[in-house]
C-alpha cells in the first residue's frame, strides 16, 4: 500500500464527550450524555469524501447523497415533566421526531425527503418509513436552522413526528455504533439498555449541522452531536434514599476515557450548595466550572477523565452523590395540552401556556400539526390570556387535505407576565375507510406534540462570546443577545378515539344471512318443488321367501 | 531398480494423497452453498402473545451465535414486548422462568417492527420485489448459492397463519412465493420451520425443489405453550421452540449434527403435539445436511497461490484553493426567533389570474345595459 501523498491535507476531526449529572428536586436524577464530532470537510462542493475517521460513514454518505444542510432526529420514550424536573438541556417530544433542512440545490424536496426517511429507518432500525405526506409539514416560521447560514427559505424545511414510535434496545444499538469508540471505551460504556430503559424518561438524538470553525467564522466544519438524556426514578431500585452513584444508575463504573477523544469530562451540578453542607459528592474534586445555561449561572464540579488521577488507585471511577433536599427550579415557560368534549363525533383541543415570570412578557411561536382525520374548525379558534382575548401577531394556517396532508397552524403569541394563555379549537372526527385502520384501532390515534419556541428572558446575562471553550451542554442553541435565551417546549401528545367499526360484522352478517337463506328459503323451495310418491313398505323376510317360491311356481305374488 | 521402486512408491503416494485431497475437497463443497440468510418472523401483537416474540428472539440468538451476521438476518417482530409498559423488567425478553436467559440481549437489530409486519411486506421480502428506496437491512439479498432459514411463529389454523390479528397468509400463497424464489434463483436450499397450531398444514402445498420443512404440530392438533412466569404474568415460550432452543444451545459452529437430529427434537411426550417434517422435495439426503448449513454461517475460504500486481494509486489533483474567495465572507448563525421578521412576513403573492367567467359576464352585462340606456352615440364622449 502506497502512502497518500502529503500534498493533500487530511481534514482535521475532533471528538469530545461529556456527561452532565443534575440531581432533581423530587429525588430523581437527570443524566445527559453528549458526544460531539467536529470535521473540517466539505460534503457539498468539490471532491467526494472517501476517508472517514471519526465521523461515521453511514451519516456522511446520507449528507452528501441527499444534500442535507441540517438533520435533527430524536427518539424519546416518556414525557418530560417540566414542572417537576425543570428544563432539559435538549428538549424532545415523545416518539420520533425528524426535521431536516435541505440545501438550495435540491430540486425535488418531497422526493428526497421520502428517500431520506427510508434510509434513516434502515440506519436506526425504526419505522421511519411511515413518515409520508400525511404527517409531514413545512413550518413557515418555526425551526430556523441551528447551524450557520444566511438565507432561509422555508421551502427546504420538512418536519415530521411519529408519536407512536417505540424506542428500545434495537434503536440504541445502531446509535452506539455511530460513536468512534463504540460502547467499548469512554463514557459510552455506561450505556447499558437494561438500566437506561428502566427509567422515567429516555431520549436519544442525533444532530448534524454546519458550525463555525473558530470565532472569526470564515470557514465551516460539520458537527455531529449525539445526545442521550435519561431521568432515573428514585423509587425504581427499591431504595428511597437520596443517594445515587454511577453504579446504581448504570450498573457500570468508568475505567478510562475514549482514547480518540480530545476531551472527556463529567459535570455535576452543585449550584444550590457550593459549600457542601447539604450535598456531598465523592470522590471529591477541586475542579469547578461555571456555565450560563438555560438563563441561569450554574456551578459544576468537573471530573476530567483524560487525567489518570481521576480514577485513583482502584483505576475505576464510581461517583457517589448524596443530598438532603433541593430547591425547586421554577421554569418560566410551561405548556399543557388536552382534549375536551364527549362522544365520538366532536371534541375540542385546549393548549395552555404558562408564563411564570413576575413582570416580563415574551413572544412565543406555537406550531400545531394535527392529522387530517381530526377536522379542525378554525373559525372556533380562540386565544385568551387572563380572560381577555389575545390576538396573535402572526398566524399561518394551512388546511388539511383528506389523506394527503395534515393541518398546520403556526401562531406568534405574546404571553403577558404571570398568566395562563389558552388556545382552543374545536374539531370533528372523520370516519376512516375500513382498510385504513391499524390492527389495534381501539387503542386510539395519536396527535403529535405541539412545539412552542420562545425567547425567554434570562436571569443573568447570557454569554454571546463564542471564543471561549464552552461545555457542550451550554453551546447547543446559538445565543445572539444577552438578555434572553432560546428554548423549545413540547406538549403532551394526544390520544384520540375515532369511531371504530365492528370488524367482526362482515363475518357475522355472512353467517346469519347464509343460515336464514338455507333454513328459510331452502325449506320453502323444497316444499314447492318436491313431488311426493307413495311407497309400499318392504315386506318381511317370510313374505319375501314366499313370493320367490310363488314366482317359481308361476303364481301371482302376495 | 531401487529408483524404480522409489518412483513407483512416490507415484502411488501422490495418487493416494490426490484422492484424499479430492475427497476432502468434495466434502468441503458438498452442500453447495456459499452464504447463509435467515428470515425470522413473529406475527402476533398484544402483550399476551409475549411467547411468540420470545420464540423468534431465541432462534435469532442461536442463529447469531452460530455465525450469521445481522446484515444477513431479516428479523420481523409484530409488537414490542421488551419496552412494553407492562413488562416489569424493561429491555428484556426471557425464555426461561425465573428470568434465567434474556434472549433480547444487548445488540439486537430488528428490521421490521410493529405495523410494518404485514403479509405484503413478508412476501415482498421473500420475492425481492421491494420499492427502490428500501434500505439494505430490510432486504433479503440472497442468490442462487444461499441457504435460507425461514422461521414463522404466531397463531395459525388449517392452511393459514394469522398476521397481527387482522390478516392471514395461506399455505398456497406461501408455496407460490417459494416457487417464485426458486424461479428467480433466490435460494440454494431452504429450511422452513413453523411453530403454530396445525402447523403441518402450512407446508402441505409446497412444490418447489430443495425445500425442507418442520412444523410443531400436525393438522388437527394445537401447539401448546411451555411455562408461565408469575412475575411477568404471561407464558414465556412455546414448547416446540423451547426444546429447539435447548437443542441448539448444544450446537457450536463446527458441530457435525445433522437434520435427522433436528427431526427428533420435542417428541410427543414433551410437546404433547406431534411435530412433523417434510423432506421429499429436498434433493440431498437429510442425514447429510448439517445443522450449521442452515443455522450457522460457515465461511468457505479458498487459499490461492497466485500473485496480483497492484497498480499505482491514483494521484490526487491538488485542491484548487478557491477557498481564498470563500474566506472573505463571514458566516453567522441564524436568528432563532426573529419576531419582527415573522410579523412582517408577507404572505405569498398569489399569481395573477385573468378574471374568470363570472366577472367577465358581470361587466359585459353592465356595459350592455349602459349602452342600451344611453345609446351608442354617446361613445364618442367617453373616448
From TrEMBL, chain A:
GO terms for biological process: attachment of GPI anchor to protein. It holds the Pfam family Gpi16. It comes from the Eukaryota. GO terms for cellular component: GPI-anchor transamidase complex. InterPro entries: PIG-T (IPR007245). Signal peptide: none annotated. This is Phosphatidylinositol glycan anchor biosynthesis class T. It comes from Cyclopterus lumpus (Lumpsucker). The gene is pigt.
Automatic annotation (TrEMBL), chain B:
GO terms for molecular function: GPI-anchor transamidase activity. Belongs to the peptidase C13 family. It holds the Pfam family Peptidase_C13. Residues 1-16 form the signal peptide. It comes from the Eukaryota. Heteropentamer. Part of the GPI-anchor transamidase complex, consisting of PIGK, PIGT, PIGS, PIGU and GAA1. Interacts with GPAA1. Interacts with PIGT; this interaction, via a disulfide link, stabilizes the expression of GAA1 and PIGK and links them to PIGS. PANTHER family: GPI-ANCHOR TRANSAMIDASE. This is GPI-anchor transamidase. The active site is at residues 155, 197. GO terms for biological process: attachment of GPI anchor to protein; clustering of voltage-gated sodium channels; detection of mechanical stimulus involved in sensory perception of touch; GPI anchor biosynthetic process; protein localization to cell surface; proteolysis. GO terms for cellular component: GPI-anchor transamidase complex. Keywords: GPI-anchor biosynthesis, Membrane, Signal, Transmembrane, Transmembrane helix. Pathway: Glycolipid biosynthesis; glycosylphosphatidylinositol-anchor biosynthesis. The chain crosses the membrane at residues 357-375. InterPro entries: GPI_transamidase (IPR028361), Peptidase_C13 (IPR001096).
Amino acid at each position: 500500500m502506497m502512502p497518500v501523498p502529503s500534498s493533500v491535507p487530511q481534514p482535521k476531526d475532533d471528538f469530545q464527550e461529556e456527561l452532565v449529572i443534575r440531581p432533581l428536586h423530587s429525588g430523581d436524577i437527570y443524566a445527559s450524555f453528549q458526544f460531539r464530532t467536529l470535521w473540517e470537510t466539505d460534503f457539498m462542493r468539490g471532491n467526494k469524501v472517501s476517508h472517514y475517521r471519526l465521523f461515521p460513514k453511514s451519516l456522511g454518505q446520507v449528507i452528501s447523497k441527499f444534500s442535507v444542510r441540517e438533520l435533527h432526529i430524536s427518539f424519546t420514550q416518556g414525557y418530560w415533566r417540566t414542572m417537576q424536573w425543570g428544563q432539559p438541556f435538549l428538549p424532545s417530544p415523545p416518539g420520533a421526531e425528524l426535521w431536516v433542512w435541505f440545501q438550495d440545490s435540491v430540486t425535488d424536496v418531497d422526493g428526497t425527503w421520502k428517500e431520506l426517511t427510508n434510509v434513516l429507518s434502515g440506519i436506526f432500525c425504526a419505522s421511519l418509513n411511515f413518515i409520508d405526506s400525511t404527517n409531514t409539514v413545512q413550518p413557515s416560521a418555526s425551526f430556523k436552522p441551528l447551524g450557520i447560514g444566511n438565507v432561509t427559505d422555508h421551502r427546504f424545511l420538512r418536519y415530521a413526528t411519529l408519536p407512536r414510535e417505540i424506542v428500545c434496545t434495537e434503536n440504541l444499538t445502531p446509535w452506539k455504533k455511530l460513536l468512534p469508540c463504540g460502547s467499548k471505551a469512554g463514557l459510552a460504556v455506561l450505556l447499558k439498555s437494561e438500566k437506561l430503559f428502566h427509567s422515567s424518561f429516555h431520549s436519544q438524538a442525533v444532530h448534524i449541522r454546519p458550525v463555525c470553525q473558530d470565532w472569526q467564522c470564515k470557514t465551516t466544519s460539520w458537527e455531529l452531536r449525539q445526545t442521550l438524556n435519561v431521568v432515573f426514578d428514585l423509587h425504581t431500585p427499591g431504595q428511597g434514599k437520596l443517594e445515587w452513584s454511577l453504579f446504581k444508575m448504570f450498573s457500570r463504573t468508568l475505567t478510562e476515557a475514549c482514547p480518540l477523544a480530545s476531551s472527556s469530562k463529567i459535570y455535576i451540578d452543585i449550584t444550590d450548595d457550593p459549600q457542601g453542607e447539604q450535598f456531598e459528592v465523592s470522590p471529591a474534586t477541586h475542579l469547578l466550572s461555571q456555565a450560563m445555561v438555560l438563563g441561569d449561572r450554574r456551578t459544576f464540579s468537573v471530573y476530567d477523565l483524560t487525567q489518570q488521577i481521576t480514577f485513583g488507585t482502584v483505576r475505576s471511577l464510581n461517583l457517589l452523590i448524596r443530598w438532603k433536599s433541593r430547591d425547586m427550579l421554577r421554569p418560566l415557560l410551561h405548556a399543557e395540552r388536552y382534549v375536551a368534549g364527549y362522544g365520538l363525533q366532536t371534541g375540542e383541543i385546549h393548549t395552555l401556556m404558562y408564563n411564570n415570570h413576575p413582570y416580563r412578557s415574551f413572544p412565543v411561536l406555537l406550531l400545531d400539526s394535527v392529522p387530517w382525520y381530526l377536522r379542525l374548525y378554525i373559525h372556533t379558534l380562540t386565544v385568551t390570556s387572563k380572560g381577555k382575548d389575545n390576538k396573535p401577531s402572526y398566524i399561518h394556517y394551512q388546511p388539511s387535505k383528506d389523506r394527503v396532508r395534515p393541518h398546520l397552524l403556526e401562531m406568534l403569541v405574546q404571553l403577558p407576565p404571570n398568566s395562563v394563555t389558552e388556545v382552543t379549537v374545536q374539531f370533528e372526527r372523520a370516519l376512516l375507510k375500513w382498510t385504513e385502520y391499524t390492527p389495534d384501532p381501539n387503542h386510539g390515534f395519536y396527535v403529535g406534540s405541539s412545539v412552542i419556541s420562545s425567547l425567554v428572558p434570562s436571569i443573568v446575562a447570557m454569554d454571546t462570546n463564542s471564543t471561549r471553550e464552552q461545555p457542550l451542554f451550554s453551546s447547543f442553541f446559538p445565543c445572539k443577545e444577552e438578555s434572553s435565551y432560546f428554548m423549545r417546549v413540547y406538549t403532551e401528545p394526544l390520544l384520540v378515539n375515532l369511531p371504530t367499526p365492528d370488524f367482526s360484522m362482515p363475518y357475522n352478517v355472512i353467517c346469519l344471512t347464509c343460515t336464514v337463506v338455507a333454513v328459510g328459503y331452502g325449506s320453502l323451495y323444497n316444499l314447492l318443488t318436491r313431488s311426493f310418491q307413495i311407497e309400499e313398505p318392504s315386506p318381511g323376510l317370510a313374505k319375501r321367501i314366499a313370493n320367490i317360491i310363488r314366482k317359481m311356481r308361476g303364481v301371482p305374488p302376495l | 531398480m531401487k529408483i524404480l521402486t522409489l518412483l513407483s512408491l512416490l507415484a502411488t503416494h501422490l495418487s493416494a494423497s490426490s484422492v484424499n485431497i479430492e475427497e476432502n475437497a468434495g466434502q468441503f463443497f458438498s452442500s453447495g452453498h456459499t452464504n447463509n440468510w435467515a428470515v425470522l418472523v413473529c406475527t402476533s401483537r398484544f402483550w399476551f402473545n409475549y411467547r411468540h416474540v420470545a420464540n423468534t428472539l431465541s432462534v435469532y440468538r442461536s442463529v447469531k451465535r452460530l455465525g450469521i451476521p445481522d446484515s444477513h438476518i431479516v428479523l420481523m417482530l409484530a409488537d414490542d414486548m421488551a419496552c412494553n409498559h407492562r413488562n416489569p423488567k424493561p429491555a428484556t425478553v426471557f425464555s426461561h422462568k425465573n428470568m434465567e436467559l434474556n434472549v433480547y440481549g444487548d445488540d439486537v437489530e430488528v428490521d421490521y417492527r410493529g405495523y410494518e409486519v404485514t403479509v405484503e411486506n413478508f412476501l415482498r421480502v421473500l420475492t425481492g420485489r421491494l420499492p427502490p428506496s428500501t434500505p439494505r437491512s430490510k432486504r433479503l439479498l440472497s442468490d442462487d448459492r444461499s441457504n435460507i432459514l425461514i422461521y414463522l411463529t404466531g397463531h395459525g389454523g388449517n392452511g393459514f397463519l394469522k398476521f397481527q390479528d387482522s390478516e392471514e397468509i395461506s399455505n398456497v400463497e406461501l408455496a407460490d412465493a417459494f416457487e417464485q424464489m426458486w424461479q428467480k434463483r433466490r435460494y440454494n436450499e431452504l429450511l422452513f420451520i413453523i411453530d403454530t397450531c396445525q402447523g403441518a398444514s402450512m407446508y402441505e402445498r409446497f412444490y418447489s425443489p430443495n425445500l425442507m420443512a418442520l412444523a410443531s404440530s400436525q393438522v388437527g392438533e394445537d401447539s401448546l405453550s411451555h411455562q408461565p412466569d408469575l412475575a411477568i404474568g404471561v407464558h414465556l415460550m412455546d414448547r416446540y421452540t423451547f426444546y429447539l432452543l435447548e437443542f441448539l444451545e448444544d450446537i457450536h459452529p463446527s458441530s457435525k449434527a445433522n437434520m435427522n437430529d433436528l427431526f427428533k427434537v420435542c417428541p410427543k411426550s414433551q410437546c404433547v403435539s406431534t411435530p412433523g417434517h417434510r423432506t421429499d422435495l429436498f434433493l440431498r439426503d437429510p442425514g447429510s445436511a448439517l445443522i450449521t448449513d442452515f443455522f450457522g454461517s460457515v465461511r468457505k475460504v479458498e487459499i490461492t497461490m497466485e500473485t496480483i500486481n497492484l497498480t499505482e494509486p491514483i494521484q490526487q489533483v491538488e485542491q484548487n484553493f478557491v477557498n481564498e474567495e470563500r474566506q472573505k465572507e463571514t458566516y453567522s448563525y441564524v436568528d432563532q426567533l426573529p419576531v419582527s421578521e415573522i410579523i412582517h412576513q408577507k404572505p405569498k403573492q398569489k399569481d395573477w389570474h385573468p378574471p374568470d367567467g363570472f366577472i367577465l359576464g358581470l361587466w359585459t352585462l353592465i356595459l350592455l345595459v349602459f349602452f342600451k340606456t344611453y345609446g351608442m352615440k354617446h361613445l364618442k364622449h367617453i373616448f
